[in-house]
């Protein structure tokens, strides 16, 4: 199963897709909480892992819809750190599924290059088995120059852990106060912490799309979604159709004007904050450059293990 499907549109689906593109603004970034795989499996009397596998197959369709719609960035919540609390068999089954999918990704890398898809895994990947770390790191490094669609896979992720990792990055920079690159207390502010998140090179999601009827956010991108449109649908993830997908886009287009007013206020606040702080100092820029370099070094080390 490919990461991007060869979805065949009906003439009516093509017409509706084109109408949405013409009539309204298309979100730049959509975040999906892919919920309902296990309930789908129970309803069909399937094994839980088969439900998750069907969920991945549906992700391939959704990525095709996003590409054709002109959406530039997609984030998916694939595996929460909280999922480690599930049964050993289910967790290991999820890891085996991830191994299979990332191995296939590397085998069809030319297809991803053709579509310009860059894979970024958001999360504490050092919590994962070493062989899975190697596959993930290899996929990230191999696609790092693609720039048409960014696919962020949240794996071994929670917002609390992401924010904790950001704080730890700042604290580590303060461990050696005599260093030229050391941060000063006046450097530490909201924008610096935001720049240390896993999503530091991504805009916030325009739309958060959750399936299965749940209206929780489940510790997903809690920092980033303060101005996102939230859309909840009853359909289970493996059963989502292009019509469900387009309903989410319509909800975003309907609410966009109010969100844009809020974001204008946020941009004004950020501009005022930038003027009143030393955020763009050479010292902070060096710190962030070093942060990126260290994260890439970690990927290289994991990929070579």
The major beta sheet can be summarized as: 6 strands, parallel
Low-confidence stretches: none
Rounded to an integer, what's the Rg over CA atoms? 20 Å
Identify the strand order in the major beta sheet.
3-4-2-1-5-6
How do the SSEs run, as a string of H and E?
HEHHEHHEHEHHEEHH
Count of discrete alpha- or pi-helical segments spanning 4 or more residues: 10
Assign a percent range to the helix content: 40-55%
How far do the termini sit from each other? 27 Å
Highlighted features:
globular, six-stranded parallel beta sheet, 53% helix, 305 residues, alpha/beta
Describe it.
With 305 residues, this protein is of the alpha/beta class. 53% of the residues lie in helices and 12% in strands. Strands 3-4-2-1-5-6 form a 6-stranded parallel sheet, with helices on both faces. α1 (11-23) packs parallel to α9 (242-276), α2 (37-43) crosses α3 and α4 packs parallel to α6.
Short description:
This protein has 305 residues and is α/β, with parallel strands linked by helices. It has helices spanning 11-23, 37-43, 48-69, 88-107, 109-115, 130-142, 159-173, 190-195, 242-276, 282-304, and strands at residues 29-33, 73-80, 117-122, 149-157, 207-210, 229-232.
């Amino acid at each position: 199963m490919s990461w991007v499907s060869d979805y065949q549109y009906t003439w009516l689906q093509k017409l509706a897709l084109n109408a949405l593109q013409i009539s309204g603004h298309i979100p730049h970034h959509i975040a999906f909480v892919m919920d309902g795989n296990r309930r789908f499996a129970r309803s069909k009397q399937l094994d839980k892992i088969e439900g998750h596998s069907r969920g991945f197959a549906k992700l391939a369709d959704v990525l095709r819809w996003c590409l054709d719609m002109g959406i530039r960035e997609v984030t998916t919540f694939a595996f929460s750190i909280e999922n480690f609390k599930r049964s050993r068999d289910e967790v290991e089954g999820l890891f085996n599924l991830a191994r299979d999918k990332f191995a296939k990704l590397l085998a069809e890398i030319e297809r991803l290059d053709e579509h310009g898809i860059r894979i970024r895994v958001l999360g504490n990947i050092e919590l994962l088995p070493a062989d899975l770390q190697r596959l993930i790191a290899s996929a990230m490094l191999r696609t790092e120059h693609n720039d048409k669609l960014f696919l962020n896979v949240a794996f071994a992720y929670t917002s609390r852990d992401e924010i904790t990792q950001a704080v730890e990055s700042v604290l580590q920079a303060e461990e050696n106060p005599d260093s030229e690159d050391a941060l000063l207390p006046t450097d530490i502010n909201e924008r610096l912490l935001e720049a240390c998140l896993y999503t530091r090179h991504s805009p916030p999601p325009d739309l958060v799309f959750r399936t299965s009827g749940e209206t929780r956010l489940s510790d997903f991108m809690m920092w980033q979604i303060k101005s996102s449109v939230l859309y909840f649908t009853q359909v289970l993830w493996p059963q989502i159709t292009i019509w469900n997908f387009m309903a989410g886009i319509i909800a975003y287009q309907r609410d966009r004007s109010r969100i844009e007013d809020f974001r204008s206020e946020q941009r004004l606040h950020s501009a005022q904050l930038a003027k009143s702080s030393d955020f763009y100092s050479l010292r902070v820029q060096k710190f962030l450059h070093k942060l990126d370099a260290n994260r890439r070094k970690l990927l290289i080390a994991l990929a070579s293990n």
